[in-house]
Specification:
Layout lengths: L3 H14 L4 H8 L3 H8 L7 H11 L3 H8 L14 H25 L2 E15 L6 E12 L4
Antiparallel strand pairs: 1-2
């Protein structure tokens, strides 16, 4: 069995050779672009039928399909990210995190937004002055329970 890291390397290499975008791949799979990308990075798992289909699209072997189906251990570096795109999200939560929590509390009550029953979409808004990145996070509200 190959590791998630080796799986990702093989996926990204095949994707490059075939000149496919994550948008192309996700459309062929009938799944969300961000979710498919996270699976390719090893942060989510994929059911067998989709894993086999992804491997067929990229002409990868059954070991990659098996690795795609394995449940991931979702961990990441706890240090401050250096990549500017990822750092901006770190900064965004640092600056707006308490505000987001307060507004969710006022609108929904005491609880959290699920990252399990969740979807995300990234769109390009072509603007006459400058293009805009539009990110939609859509998560089920989970109320804290008391007992």
């Amino acid at each position: 069995m190959i590791t998630k890291e080796i799986m990702s390397e093989q996926i990204f290499a095949a994707k490059k050779v075939k000149n496919l975008s994550f948008e192309n791949i996700s459309q062929q799979l009938g799944k969300g672009e961000v979710w498919v990308t996270s699976v390719c990075f090893g942060m989510n798992s994929m059911p067998k039928d989709l894993a086999d289909k992804l491997c067929k699209i990229l002409e990868l072997n059954g070991e990659v399909s098996d690795a795609l189906q394995q449940y991931p251990h979702k961990s990441w570096s706890k240090k401050i990210p250096q990549d500017p795109v990822i750092y901006r999200f770190y900064e965004l939560i640092g600056v707006y995190g308490d505000s987001i929590k307060a507004v969710i509390g006022e609108k929904f009550g005491d609880g959290i937004m699920s990252a399990i029953d969740f979807s995300m979409d990234i769109k390009k808004d072509e603007n006459s002055k400058e293009d805009r990145v539009v990110i939609t996070l859509n998560g089920k509200f989970l109320r804290y329970s008391s007992w």
